[in-house]
Write a structure and sequence with these properties.
alpha+beta, 14 strands, Barwin-like endoglucanases, four-stranded antiparallel beta sheet, six-stranded mixed β-barrel, single chain, 14% helix
Length: 355
């Protein structure tokens, strides 16, 4: 870790001892208002301002944009002659009006405003048991699959209750520990609830750190996974646990001391693909119906209708508007992307000329 060995040595500690004592290490203290940082001579070299004052260096379609921002864009020249980094938008300014939104066919959303979501409160039928599920919620002790082998963290957090507001629970006739069926657009899953005032009415939450399963005895982390079976018939897929989390023999003697059983429920399987028409990102929040578990339901069950999943996906696609934009781009170049391709990949292929 950059800077850690030096800081540890100054404190008379090893890097590991430093982290054990302090828990954190400061990497940089100059991270605020980077938009106001003056450009260096090296950054300015070869850059010319465009009609908006954006300082750009020459690029080609084979140039690769940075993680955030446009290829060749280094900053902005202000009216007083100064040059700073600016913001990482196309104009290098904090934009109240987004030319990108307008150019990609959404002029009505080019300025900030309210966009009603697919889980807005007025779209819910509370009397029918409809609620909003936040599957992006998680307990702070576990992180995705990266903590699957962290035995001490799993010893702390090893149950997977669905958080339900106590008022909603009373209205629906359910209580803490009850098994419930959670119905989505494309299927359902079965979980146990925790009735609490720690979540607002109309909203439920199920941490995404659990619900891990394996199909084979020795596959995956046995600290957290249940042994499961998957079956399907005519487009209907079912997952059910055959055996919960249990002690097992390994080189780590603590594996024989596991005293928890709940692997949780893999809720994501029951979510349809919701491609956001504006960003392309997946819209995770779900409108669900909550009711008592049906006869035969077991904790952790997941049932999905893949045919319905396809229908929902196409319904969401129907809400999009076709590209490319006025410049032939398939998507904005400046938006953050973990690994950006060459600029040519952002362009739609020109139509083939007729012979």
């Amino acid at each position: 870790m950059p800077g850690l060995p030096k800081k540890a040595a100054e404190a008379g500690l090893t890097p590991l001892a430093y982290m054990r004592r302090f828990g954190v290490v400061e990497l940089d203290e100059e991270l605020y208002r980077l938009d106001e940082r003056p450009l260096t001579d090296a950054e300015l070299a070869g850059a010319e301002p465009d009609e908006q004052g954006v300082l750009r260096k020459p690029v080609t379609l084979e140039s690769v944009p940075p993680l955030i921002g446009e290829a060749g864009s280094v900053g902005v020249r202000h009216s007083d002659g100064s040059a700073t980094v600016g913001w990482l938008t196309p104009s290098r300014r904090l934009e109240i009006y987004s030319t990108a939104m307008a150019d990609f066919g959404w002029p009505e959303h080019a300025t900030p405003g309210y966009i009603e979501s697919h889980v807005s409160h007025k779209s819910l039928d509370l009397d029918a048991g409809e609620l909003v599920l936040m599957p992006t919620f998680r307990l702070p002790t576990l992180v995705h699959t990266r903590s699957g082998n962290a035995k001490y963290l799993n010893e702390i957090s090893n149950s997977h209750p669905m958080w339900v507001n106590a008022t909603d629970a009373e209205r629906l006739g359910i209580g803490t520990g009850d098994l419930v069926r959670v119905t989505t657009e494309i299927g359902h899953f079965v979980a146990r609830i925790w009735a609490t005032q720690a979540i607002r009415p109309g909203v439920t939450a199920l941490s995404h750190h659990m619900g891990r399963w394996r199909l084979h005895e020795q596959a995956g982390s046995r600290w957290v996974t249940g042994l499961a079976d998957i079956s399907h018939d005519d487009g209907i897929w079912r997952l059910r646990y055959k055996r919960p989390v249990a002690p097992f023999s390994s080189a780590d003697p603590d594996s024989s001391r596991i005293n928890w059983e709940d692997p949780g429920v893999h809720q994501n399987l029951a979510f349809a693909v919701h491609p956001d028409p504006w960003s392309g990102a997946h819209c995770w929040h779900q409108k669900i119906r909550l009711e008592h578990a049906h006869p035969g339901d077991e904790s952790g069950d997941v049932v999905v209708d893949t045919r319905r999943a396809r229908e929902v996906y196409r319904e969401w696609l129907a809400g999009t508007r076709p590209g490319p934009n006025t410049s032939g781009q398939r998507r904005p170049e400046f938006l953050m992307r973990p690994v950006k391709p060459r600029r040519s990949a952002f362009r739609a292929a020109p139509p083939e000329s007729s012979s």
